[in-house]
Amino acid sequence: MADIDVRIALWQCEARPLQVEANLTRLDATAAVSTARGAQLLIAPEMVVTGYAIDPDAADRLADAPDGPVAQRVRDIARSHDIAILYGCVERAPDGRRFNAIRLVDRLGSAIATHHKTQLFGDIDRRMVAPGSSRPPVVEWAGWRVGLLTCYEVEFPELVRSCARRGADLICVPTANMIDYDVVQEVLLPARALESQVFLAYANYCGAEGDLVYGGRSTVVSPTSAVLAQAGRDPELLVVDLDRLTLEESRETYPYLRDLRTDVC
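Given the sequence above, the corresponding structure tokens read:
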């Protein structure tokens, strides 16, 4: 595998609400399997550490500081298995506010970026966390420019395009998408990847959590809109290779970013 190509793993799992230690143990085991299969990055679902459909009291009790015990543990897992990890949790800011956070750490256990979800989904999000106020990060990783979005955010073309205009090659999306919204995987992800000329990696839950039934179907899409891999409804670890040549050739065929007139839009 050439240096300009990467292999990523998407962990589609059932949510285990409130079981922080069990979820970190599962993350550790999945990181080991991902490394054994040659992956350089493991993407876990939204709020994988705590479960997604939790009440405000639980969110407050389980919120992790930016350099708290959960952050330290995941850094140790990444370092132990020589793999970068993108995972979701509830984060408590220094001012006391709670955020739905995704955190990216590299294979050496160093923190690369954190993103606070800006587009909250209904009362599920709004009763637990405050909305983020910063645009999604785009960071350097393994020779690629990687954008970070959380779940509902990928359904807004403006956010995907924002990452693309800042140079993103790959956009990673931890998610907790319900089974009623399969249209996201069927229609929106291919459209977003094509119109913004990026790879998209969408890691979802499966199974049920309380009254929510998750749809699974974690998906990786190329900038041509081709679905490179898609899980079913059950737990699965997707491992997918992304190659730079596909990205470069697609951007020549579909030069949307190059031709975009920012003076009229």
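The helical segments are 20-36, 56-62, 69-81, 122-126, 157-165, 183-196, 244-253, 256-259. Try to locate this feature in the token string yourself.
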